[in-house]
Structure formats: structure tokens, C-alpha cells
Amino acid sequence: MATIKDVAKMANVSTATVSRIINNKPGANIETEKRVRDAINLLNYEPNNIARSLSNKTSNLIALIIPNLNNPYFSDLVNIIETAANKHGYKLYLCNSNDNEDNIAYFLKSIIDNYIQTVIINSLAITEKDIKYLEKHDINVITIDRTNVDNQPNTISVDHFRGSYIATEHLIKNCECENILFMSGEITEKSSASRFKGYQSAMQEYLLSHQVQLLEGNFTYKSGFDLAYNTLNQKMMFMGLYVLMTLWQ
What we know:
The chain has 249 residues and is an alpha/beta fold. 49% of the residues lie in helices and 16% in strands. The chain contains 10 helices and 8 strands. A 5-stranded parallel β-sheet has the order 2-1-3-4-5, with helices on both faces. Strands 7-6-8 form a 3-stranded parallel β-sheet, sandwiched between helices. The longest helix is centred in the C-terminal third of the chain and has 17 residues. The radius of gyration is 26 Å and the shape is elongated. The two termini are 45 Å apart.
């Protein structure tokens, strides 16, 4: 595998000159640049991205902070973002945080150390302090839906209220359900609270007599299974029970 020294030797220039040309820095004349470019092509030289990052204090990485890869939603999200990043010459730096504060602290430092300039965040563990920490280091921040950060200017979000309302409306109008149980992740989380309000609103609008029922778990499959299993075991005599699952993330 060719090295930068091999390129410099073939082009009869210094390694510093090769580095400047690779990183599109001024200082070399047209003839010198052509010799270096030709040597790179002939030797099939591929610059070391880590070395380039250290030299330029920038990188071609985009960081993505997600809770985990257990949920197929996040696996699909990673694939879509990675495909788009690669299309534009960027690589994905994946941060699987498990919504753990220690993990978040580690990844934030790593992002800065690797001169990453853009971070996409989907994590409940991220705080406004974390966002300010990134912005202080001139890092662009985009949040996707699942955060507890308010007033973030660069964000893509889902209307959780409307989605839950439509789901409940469908159960009532199309499935003729009346006894609907709302199972949720932590209700203190913004998306959970919005979904619960959407469920409440539809119940109040379409049912003259209704009982709002909330079971709170966390954002895991096991939590959803346990809540559903225990509830159905307790209420087998009520065959009209329908469960509105809201454990998507």
C-alpha cells in the first residue's frame, strides 16, 4: 500500500507539499499540483482520514446518537442516514447510548476529539447542557423527535398527539372498541405525554361514557409484554378489552 512518502518521492516534492495539495490548501503551483495528483493516481494512494482530520481539524464524519439497535425503527433509521451520508461523501459515526448519561458523556468527548462537525441526536438522555456543549465547539446539532430538549431550532419531530388520536379514533369508529387501555413508556417523557393526551382527547370526543386507563412501563419490548400479559391475565373475563400499545419510540 502506497504511503504519502511514496507519493512525495515520485512527484519529487516534500511530504508537506503532498499534504497541502491533498487538503486543498494553497501554496503549490499548477505544475507541482499536477505531478502530485498524477503520482497519487499512479500509486492508487488513499489518504489517511484520521491524519487528515488532525491536520484540518475537521472530518468527513457525521455522528448519530441513538438509544439502541434492538428496536428495528432505529436500525432502519441508521441505514437511511448512512446511505444519505455516503451519497454525499460522509461516513457515519454511530453512538449507541442506551440513554445512559455516562455513555453520552463519553460520546460527546469523542465527537469533539474526532473533529466531527455535525451531530444527529435521538436520545432521551441528551440535555440542553449537552446541546450547548456541542454548540460551544461549533458543532451543528440536529435533533430527531425523541429528545426532551425544548426550543431546539434544528429539529425533525412527529406529531405524537395526532398519531395517538387517530389510532384511538380508529379503534372506536372502525373496530367498535369502548374499553381501551393505554400502555406507555415513561409518561414523564414528552412523546409519551403527548400520545396520552391524544388518546384522552379521542376517548372524550367519541365515547359518552368512558374510562381513561393508563399503564406506565418503559421503552422496552419486555416492559410492553409484561404489562400486557399481567393485565390480560387479570381481566380475562372482560373479553371486550382492547389494548392501545404506545411503546414505539
